[in-house]
From TrEMBL:
Name under which the protein is recorded: GrdX protein
Protein source organism: Muricomes intestini
Lineage: Bacteria, Bacillati, Bacillota, Clostridia, Lachnospirales
Annotated NCBIfam families: GrdX
The organism's place on the tree of life at top rank: Bacteria
């Protein structure tokens, strides 16, 4: 496995399948909002955000999938900017009704692909 200075937290099985051999991926079968909270907890431990928690044009709770890049290393104190971003994302998530349960099975594959595409773009920046 390649040594990176970041880790990926995701609930997207497509991301896990594509990156588990080359990146440090933390996969949880949990909701979009729970992924945000998992990232928030890690920021409190000293990790920093490397990708925006609300990237893309799909609103929170319209998709069930989210992948976020954070630093592997921890700082001595929580990063205030990262905390503000993740807390705002959690708050924004609470403003939307869950809609992903209204879609047919094939749509979930599309949402996985959208999340993967957004993550792939962020990875290209993180790996420079």
């Amino acid at each position: 496995m390649a040594q990176n200075n970041f880790e990926i937290i995701t609930n997207n099985p497509l991301v896990l399948g594509k990156l588990r051999e080359t990146h440090y991926v933390i996969y949880h079968d949990i909701s979009y909002e729970e992924i945000l909270k998992e990232v928030r907890d890690r920021i409190h431990e000293g990790h920093r955000l490397l990708s925006h928690p609300l990237s893309g044009s799909v609103k929170p709770k319209e998709t069930p999938y989210k992948s976020i890049i954070i630093t592997t290393g921890k700082g001595m104190e929580p990063d205030i900017e990262s905390l503000e971003l993740i807390e705002n994302a959690i708050e924004a998530c609470g403003k939307f009704a869950f809609k992903a349960d209204l879609y047919g099975a094939g749509v979930y594959k599309d949402f996985q692909l959208i999340d993967w595409t957004l993550l792939k773009s962020a990875l290209e920046s993180a790996e420079i």
